[in-house]
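Crash report, auto-generated. Payload:
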Amino acid sequence: MNGSYELSSDLEEMEAPVILFDGVSKEYVKGIRAIDNISFKIRKGEFVFIVGSSGSGKSTLIKMMMREIKPSSGRVYVAGKELSRLRKWQISKYRRSIGVVFQDFRLLHDRNVFDNVAFAQRVIETPTKKIRRQTPRMLSIVGLAEKHKSFPKELSGGEQQRVALARALVNNPSILLADEPTGNLDPKNSWEIMRLLEEVNRRGTTVVVVTHNREIVDVMQKRVITMKNGVMISDNEKGGYIHAKN
Amino acid sequence: MPRISTVGYSLKQGVKNIKRNRMFSLASVGTMTACLFLFGIFYFIVANFQFIIKNAESSVGVTVFFEEGITDSKITEIGRAIKTRVEVSEYKYVSAEETWENYKQKLSEEAIATFGDDNPLENSAHYIVYLNDVSMQDALVNYLEDLDGVRQVNDSEEVAGIFTGINRVVGYVSAALIIILIGVAMFLISMTVTTGISVRKQEISIMKLIGATDFFIRAPFIVEGVLIGTIGSLIPLGFLYVMYHRVVQYITDEFSNPYQTLQFLDVSTIFRTLFPVSLALGIGIGFLGSYLTLGKQLRKIN
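Recovered output after restart:
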């Protein structure tokens, strides 16, 4: 599965990839590769699961897409931009085109639901009027309009993740990255979040989900990229969870 | 150019930081207050000392004696030459008769009687020249000695040396004290901002992930530093204003004498300089303390 894409021919395709990994490797410690020569492309509007056991390199892939880290070799393109070439001031602008959801929600506990979602807009300097209009709309999409005054500690795990999702989506990102979004949730809440992610994808957002949840991957029948020990061992267009043998 | 809403948000967050970080903020404001209070006291002493020295300097004169048989027109010419010098604040002519009359006051009746109608100080007509700055005395004396018609120039080199020396020491001590105070205050502001950043670590990390600009992340901390600096300079200025007024009033009432040897600068003259300097120091220290700390601390957060 590893190898290099012919970049020129890829870009000529009708649907250019919105995310492209081209022979990407990462060494955190010299000589030890966290990911090794990874190449894949994700087209606009796709829903992709990245699966694999702990230490397989899934999180490294997500961190590279967020431009938290740079590859040691190879190139990562998102929306046509090579991320390694972004200057410091361009990174913040780039991140505005991406929504991120984490396993631990990462909400601000001293602010209520409304303010947590408004915060994402405030950070990118959205006018206050627009924030007042967009926040309630986004909260009703994730089913939390009634709880806009509640603080995170007053919400269930599922509700907290929905707030995180609303925060990630409120700025209309073209890509949504979800790192183990159901990792801390019970099955009922996990399915609610996945249904929301599917709805977001149906509206045109490219969704990349890193997960351990076999049931969800098997049932949803989306594209699945499987990682093992830093190497991509499969990329199935409509697949289930593959358990990699050691 | 940031939006007005962003500026408002940064100000609000800066105030929130101070409240959230109450103990450290209070410690910083307290230290800043103490530093600038000391600075103010020191400034009072230095400014008044220099004022008193300036007054004393103006009483230190250079005496210019003329050659024997000099004409009145030549004396006037020398007077004109003295007038053109920038270091001269004032000069006056004292005739031989006036000199003798003044000297007579120091002698007994018997001693005066021995001179009869003679003037023993016949050749003592002179100019007394007062200076703007006593450190310029040497240059003036050299100039005067070279003038045609001048026999002798008497200066007060020792007094001039003492005043110049004191001025220099006061300048060095004040510079050293100010540098130490600035260092202490900046360290405390830096500690406050560091604590503020560690408290808001998660928030900053989320901000970075969702695309906040560097300005947006830094602005509340800069506001925090500047606010601490502003409050920390306004409090001591208030105290100092009231204190100076009362102390000067007390000293003037209690120790006044007909010769006015103890003269102080009035409060408005002192504060015309002290207010903007203290405020600028407070704001500057607050800004620099937070700005320099931010770069270092924010790099540690992903």
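Post-recovery validation: The interface with chain A takes residues 2-3, 5-6, 9, 202-203, 205-214, 216, 302 of chain B (CB under 8 Å).
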